[in-house]
UniProtKB/TrEMBL annotation:
Domain of life according to the entry: Eukaryota
Name the UniProt record assigns to this protein: Carbonic anhydrase
Xref: Pfam families: Carb_anhydrase
Role noted for this protein: Reversible hydration of carbon dioxide.
InterPro entries referenced in this protein's UniProt entry, alphabetically: CA_dom, CA_dom_sf, Carbonic_anhydrase_a-class, Carbonic_anhydrase_a-class_CS
Domain Alpha-carbonic anhydrase stretches: 1-239
PANTHER family in alphabetical order: CARBONIC ANHYDRASE, CARBONIC ANHYDRASE 7
PROSITE patterns: ALPHA_CA_1, ALPHA_CA_2
EC number, UniProt record: 4.2.1.1
Taxonomic source organism: Sphaeramia orbicularis (orbiculate cardinalfish)
One GO cellular component term noted in the UniProt record for this chain: cytoplasm
Length: 239
């Protein structure tokens, strides 16, 4: 049961601030008050990696403010909880947000929560300003290479090495793109995709298989939700 059936169990699927959306750059309003986003991931500690057969999630220790995103549209620092990817079975589609109708091969989501206003992620996940997700497009060359790299110990993995050169972004109010689809996300989508070079590839590696256990391959099925109605929302652009 794909995205078109989610509304049966999660009526908010037809809500007024659902994600992803199609971003039309020249319709986004440039907001000079939007400061740059600041990422403090230097002391991030990845604690777990899980591969549920159709996505891979790397979780972080979010018991203190060691890895946060702040600035831009955010009034507080938001703590990094996990990151994961969305992709498609064909190289030409897979991202969740689209830009003027065009898809990228994949989209990386760095999920953060507002630990200043809320006590737990679960509480923040149901609040209108509870979560901030940084969306980063991956181009096809990089995505497939990145998916097939190995790392014996991903503990030293720092998502900062995943960032494109420019942190220019679009931002809008939206939701989780998978159930429970809570309308609690301040989306920050970077304009530039990541194109990892060969030499950077050495740094960005991901354990995708369970190693000695049975070869649990990631099925390359689609795990992206199509764009949702804007319903009058404004997309702002950093300069
Ligand atoms: N694709 S997405 O970034 O919008 C995104 C991010 C997180 C999640 N869900 C998470 S982290 O679930 C953790 C369990 C939970 C607790 C309260 S609501 C979900 C779903 C979609
Ligand atoms: Zn996601």
């Amino acid at each position: 049961t794909g995205p078109s059936a989610w509304h049966n169990k999660y009526p908010v699927a037809h809500g007024s601030r659902q994600s992803p959306i199609d971003i039309v750059p020249h319709q986004a309003s440039r907001d000079p008050n939007l400061s740059q986003i600041v990422l403090n991931y230097d002391r991030c500690t990845s604690i777990n990696i899980s591969n549920n057969g159709h996505s891979v999630v790397v979780e972080f220790d979010d018991t203190d403010d060691r890895s946060v995103i702040q600035g831009g549209p955010l009034d507080n620092p938001y703590r990094l909880k996990q990151f994961h990817f969305h992709w498609g079975e064909k190289g030409c589609e897979g991202s969740e947000h689209t830009v003027s109708g065009n898809s990228y091969a994949s989209e990386l989501h760095l999920v953060h929560w507002n630990a200043v206003k809320y006590k737990t992620f679960d509480e923040a996940a149901t609040a209108p300003d509870g979560l901030a997700v940084l969306g980063i497009f991956l181009d096809v060359r990089c995505f497939f290479k990145c998916l097939y790299c190995f790392i014996t110990d991903f503990k030293d993995f720092n998502p900062k090495c995943l960032l494109p050169s420019s942190l220019h972004y679009w931002t809008y109010l939206g939701s989780l793109t998978t159930p429970p689809l809570h309308e609690s996300v301040i989306w920050i989508v970077l304009k530039d995709p990541i194109t990892v070079s060969e030499k950077q590839l050495g740094k960005f590696r991901m354990l995708l298989f369970t190693g000695e256990e049975e070869d649990q391959r990631l099925r390359m099925e689609n795990n992206f939700r199509p764009p949702q109605p804007l319903k009058g929302r404004k997309v702002r652009s950093s300069n």
